[in-house]
């Protein structure tokens, strides 16, 4: 999740909507992370561990986005002379890193038995650092969004083709399908849009929150 270097004019209503959406998303991410803690401690199942860490990184990425929004609002409201070349990389790079790592951990929670998990995590860190740096250097936030979307599509491929998901663990399959949909919605819901497309962005945010609720309810049923 990244922001384009060219920002629209400050819009109080849009900023309030983003604030509410981001706050709720952060709460749900950490509720899901906490809800699965006991399940992991009881089973020590590595798939649950990577699942939890995916939501941890996802929640942290939303916190960074929230702080970034505060800086932008303060810059407009108080007319602060903050050079973009200084503060944009401070947020764009960690934001892209955290959201990309969330996708890697989500994918790893599916394939950890088929791969060398430690090696995949190391490569995940390399890719997660490289992608936002490239996106920032090229001034192309859509490049990062596109590459992250491809990672999600690759993860979706495993849901449909891994035998253990397609034949036996129907509930798990549905859960991951919801998560992939949420990730894709969240990636594009935070994409800066022109004023004419604000309604589309709000709809994407509302759908994202509905999916958050659905995921939390499913996990709550399994852990109760």
- Quick one: biggest sheet? none
Fraction of residues in H or I helices: over 70%
Sketch the topology as an H/E string, one letter per element.
Answer: HHHHHHHHH
**Poorly predicted ranges:** 1-8
Mean pLDDT, as a whole number? 76
What would the principal axes of the Cα set say about the shape?
A: globular
Please report the number of helical segments: 9
Q: Strand content of the residues, in percent? A: under 5%
- Termini Cα gap: 33 Å
The computed structural class is: mainly alpha
The radius of gyration over CA amounts to 18 Å
Q: Give a count of the beta strands, DSSP E runs of length 2 or more.
A: 0
Give the arrangement of secondary structure elements.
Blueprint: H1 12-35, H2 37-43, H3 46-77, H4 84-111, H5 117-138, H6 141-161, H7 163-168, H8 170-189, H9 198-223
Helix pairs in contact: 1-3, 1-9, 3-4, 4-5, 4-6, 5-6, 6-8, 8-9
Compact overview of the structure:
The chain is mostly helical and 224 residues long. The chain contains nine helices and no strands.
Structural notes for this entry:
The structure is a single chain. 83% of the residues lie in helices and 0% in strands. With 224 residues, the protein is mainly alpha-helical. Helix 4 packs parallel to helix 6. It starts with 11 loop residues before the first helix and ends with a helix. The N terminus is likely disordered.
